[in-house]
Design brief:
Chain A: This is Simple sugar transport system ATP-binding protein. Chain A: Belongs to the ABC transporter superfamily. Chain A: Keywords: ATP-binding, Cell membrane, Membrane, Nucleotide-binding, Repeat, Sugar transport, Translocase, Transport. The complex is a heterodimer of chains A (about 500) and B (about 325). Chain A has about 500 residues and is of the alpha/beta class. Chain A has 18 helices and 22 strands. In chain A, the strands form five sheets. A six-stranded mixed beta sheet of chain A has the order 6-7-8-3-9-10, with helices on both faces. In chain A, strands 16-19-20-13-21-22 form a six-stranded mixed beta sheet, sandwiched between helices. In chain A, strands 2-1-4-5 form a four-stranded antiparallel beta sheet, with helices on one face. In chain A, strand 7, helix 7 and strand 8 form a beta-alpha-beta unit. Chain A is globular and about 70 Å long. The relative contact order of chain A is 0.10. Chain B is globular and about 65 Å long. In chain B, strand 2 and strand 3 form a beta hairpin. Chain B contains 14 helices and four strands. Classes of the chains: A alpha/beta (about 500), B mainly alpha (about 325).
């Protein structure tokens, strides 16, 4: 691994967009066969750097660029391709309707003899690529029938067909469960063992530390440094990425003197969750953790009135409720922040302002019509109360970063004046630094008396932010924990057991 | 120049630019090309022809904004007209009283609303694509109308109906005033009402709307019901203008209403669009056809030019937006 000559070497990379220095003289090196982590918060310049390496953007004068010892003066996307530099973007860019073989051997479809598709060559290439990863998949299955982890494999296999020597993987584990992530990590190891260098771009620090040899950390377009991964801790990486020190401490406290706001009794829904009971008191934060498929989201949607329980009782403020729809739940003061911010939680093309008032229209009416000044006031109030960084309230919400989008999504629910706020995976796609900001808001809301159900598949999130933790597995409550009486490692051990 | 554009955008919205530019171009070309274009005569012909197409376009607009479409607008209009005609005939045809007229209008509106509600309920509950549902509705209504009228005209209405189609108040044609009032109602509906807010939201993402507590089924049903009511108003105007009802009246308007809406900057996928640019787009289309008429060109050529205009506006929009996008990057 410690070959004298790096496979890829960049020095003094600068680029400016719209007067903003996106990269301020960054250098970056990858050794042959190495697993390298490129870490940094959103907007730190990771994607820009990858786009320079693949010839999409041109760096400013003074840059030094070499691949395999050969200096490169002007990289182009097709040159990157022929040198064996491949990028697997987070969205994978695969074809759902096409088969595994067609997806992997795609280039054979566009460059066959006489303009015809050489199916045999395509399948052979696909088989070879999968074999190299040590995986076997049904080549004739349409891609959309595969779970996401296997689609990921298909994307990697496609990169290998192009004789990859350096593969960039952008957030490859963002939508994977723990076991799928383990599987992917195994694949990356095989890849690296076969001599292909892999650059891993990820938010999820645990797996970065597990898989990489070295890491390059960027912050605000500048190089923080290159570090060996051995001996690195998650909090140290966070500190390097954000330049701040996040002290994590358990905040759990007793709320026994507070009134019970929500009481769930023996709640069940066939094939989703079974016999769930718990109490939630005023100002309390209840953490719900467990692996994907544990029934957490289904439970949340039932509390939110979007699904009907098959048996059991939901008691809100002492009264049994039977929500016919989430509108009734909202009126009763139950809010649910969806785990899927992109398609369910927010209306991405619409404006920040409209997204913010979407659930609380009744509060901005004046003689039956929406009052523009009232709307403006509500929007301005929440934007400043939650410290959302925006341009204009009329801008589409998709123009905001994940963290700022999530703040608006939270504001949308606070605007209804809720009693209970259910947060389902509130930090998915949110930067490490911005996550801390989100939890700061959550803690403040709890201190103001809001009852919160915090659902997360990352044990540290519930460990550091909840008063009590419910561990769900296969639709049942496996155990209830008090963060004060256990270590984080204990909790992780139990969840991943 | 750019500050002028900014000011314009702030006052009228960026989607207004396309129709307004097209308006200016049409005015200049015909103003220079046809001697008597800038005259009261042109205004009169535009003012009388605009409302039929205009009202049907308003009926098309709400479904388009939800990401749907209503292919049954013309037949809903004529069937509503037919309902009104039947009532008038039952009360003595030419001799029908003013009270009969009120009942006739109520019957027309009820017919339009019922057709729209059926469509809306089918879309909301079966989740079938609006193209399929409204296509079925269109064929059903046409068949029903042809069956009821035996494919012919129904005519013979009281004389007080005539001003609704041909009369003026203070020099402004009554159909135009009705149309402008409807534009006003739609404007308020879209910009200030909960329904308008909800229909735009579900136009770009139904599920996000549901998760935020919007009653998406109710919104869809209301949208198509209101579309049907607007068709009924168009049907009454057409009845008065032609002094007859025929199920096939204005059939060719159907796709022109879609064209006018897109020309007015409506997002073809739903979620975005405003009434005023659509209004201007409608005026442009009518001016184009009236101007060609004045120059002695064949009416069919006008239709062809409508298509060309649409393509030109689309191309211009792409060019302008990429120009601004490239400028924004440089700033």
């Amino acid at each position: 691994m410690m070959s004298a000559e790096p496979l890829l070497s960049l020095k003094n990379i600068k680029i400016t967009f719209g007067g903003v220095r996106a990269l301020k003289g960054v250098s970056f090196e990858v050794n042959p066969g190495e697993v390298h982590c490129l870490a940094g918060e959103n907007g730190c310049g990771k994607s820009t750097l990858i786009k320079i390496i693949t010839g999409v953007y041109k760096p400013e004068d003074g840059a030094e660029f070499s691949f395999d010892g050969q200096p490169i003066t002007a990289m182009t996307p097709s040159m990157a391709q022929s040198l064996g530099i491949q990028v697997i973007w987070q969205d994978l860019a695969l074809f759902g309707e096409m088969t595994v073989a067609e997806n992997i051997g795609f280039q054979y479809a566009v460059s066959g003899k006489y303009g015809l598709v050489d199916k045999r060559a395509m399948e052979k290439a696909a088989e070879k690529a999968l074999a190299r990863l040590g995986v076997s998949l049904d080549l004739h299955l349409p891609l959309k029938e595969l779970p996401i982890a296997q689609r990921q494999i298909v994307a990697i296999a496609r990169a290998l067909v192009g004789e990859a020597r350096l593969v960039f993987m952008d957030e490859p584990t963002a939508s994977l469960t723990q076991s799928e992530t383990d599987y992917l990590i195994e694949i990356v190891r095989n890849l690296s063992a076969s001599g292909v260098a892999v650059v891993f771009v990820s938010h999820r620090l645990a797996e970065v530390l597990e898989i990489s040899d070295r890491m390059t950390v960027l912050r605000d377009g500048a190089l923080v440094g290159v570090f060996p991964v051995e001996g690195m801790t998650q909090s140290r990486v966070t500190e390097l990425m954000t330049g701040r020190n996040f002290d994590s401490a358990v905040i759990a406290a007793d709320h026994d003197d507070q009134p019970v706001v929500l009481s769930v009794k023996n709640l069940s829904r066939a094939n989703e969750f079974d016999n769930i009971s718990f109490d939630l008191r005023r100002g309390e934060t209840l953490g719900v953790t467990g692996l994907l498929g544990a029934g957490r989201t289904e439970l949340a949607l039932t509390l939110f009135g979007m699904r009907r329980p098959h048996s059991g009782e939901i008691v809100l403020d002492g009264e049994t409720v039977h929500f016919g729809s989430n509108r009734e739940a909202i009126r009763a003061g139950v809010a649910y922040l969806s785990e899927d911010r992109l398609s369910l939680g927010l209306n991405q093309p619409q404006s920040i302002a409209d997204n913010l008032v979407m659930a609380s229209l009744d509060r901005i009416l004046s003689s039956g019509l929406i009052s523009p000044p009232k709307k403006e006031n509500v929007v301005a109030h929440w934007i400043s109360a939650l410290g959302v960084k925006i341009g204009k309230p009329e801008d589409p919400i998709r123009t905001l970063s994940g963290g700022n989008q999530q703040r608006v999504a939270i504001a949308k629910w606070l605007a209804i004046g809720p009693k209970i706020l259910i947060l389902d995976a509130p930090t998915v796609g949110v930067d490490v630094g911005a996550r801390a900001g989100i939890f700061e808001i959550v803690r403040k809301l709890a201190a103001e008396g809001l009852s919160i159900i915090l659902i997360s598949d990352e044990p540290p999130e519930v460990y550091f932010n909840a008063d009590r933790i419910i561990h769900m597995a296969e639709g049942r409550i496996k155990a209830t924990y008090d963060p004060r009486q256990m270590s984080l490692t204990d909790l992780e051990g139990k969840v991943y057991a | 120049m750019s500050s002028l554009i900014q000011k314009f955008n702030k006052t009228f919205g960026a989607d207004m630019a396309g129709p307004v530019i097209a308006f200016v171009v049409v005015m200049v070309i015909f103003g220079l090309g046809a001697d008597n274009f800038l005259s009261l005569g042109t205004f009169g012909s535009v003012a009388f022809q605009l409302p039929e197409l205009g009202l049907l376009t308003l009926a098309m607009l709400l479904p388009l904004l939800t990401g749907g479409i209503n292919l049954s607008v013309t037949f809903t209009a004529n069937l509503s007209g037919l309902a009104a005609a039947s009532v008038l005939q039952a009360f003595g045809g030419v001799d029908a009283s003013g009270g009969a007229f009120v009942i006739a209008v109520a019957a027309a509106v009820a017919t339009g609303a019922a057709a729209g509600l059926m469509t809306g309920a089918a879309i909301a509950y079966t989740r079938a694509h609006p193209i399929l549902v409204t296509l079925s509705m269109m064929i059903f209504l046409r068949g029903l109308g042809e069956f009821l009228t035996r494919g012919g005209d129904v005519s013979g209405f009281p004389s007080y109906m005539e001003p609704i189609g041909h009369g003026s108040i203070f020099g402004l044609p009554i159909p135009l005033l009705i149309f402008i009032a409807c534009v006003g109602v739609w404007q308020v509906l879209l910009t200030r009402s909960k329904l308008g807010f909800g229909l735009l939201m579900i136009g770009s993402n139904v599920e996000a709307g549901q998760y935020s507590g919007l009653n998406t089924r109710r919104i869809i049903m209301l949208v198509y019901t209101l579309s049907g009511v607007m068709c009924a108003i168009a049907g009454i105007i057409m009845l008065a203008r032609f002094n007859s009802v025929r199920i096939g009246h204005g059939e060719s308007y159907l796709l022109i209403t879609v064209l006018a809406a897109f020309l007015g900057g409506i997002n073809p996928f739903g979620g975005f669009g405003r009434v005023l640019p659509v209004f201007v787009a409608l005026v442009v289309l009518q001016l184009l056809s009236s101007g060609l008429n004045l120059m002695g060109a064949n009416q069919h050529l006008a239709t062809a030019l409508w298509g060309v205009l649409m393509i030109v506006v689309m191309a211009a929009r792409t060019i302008v937006s990429s120009y601004f996008a490239s400028r924004r990057k440089k700033i």
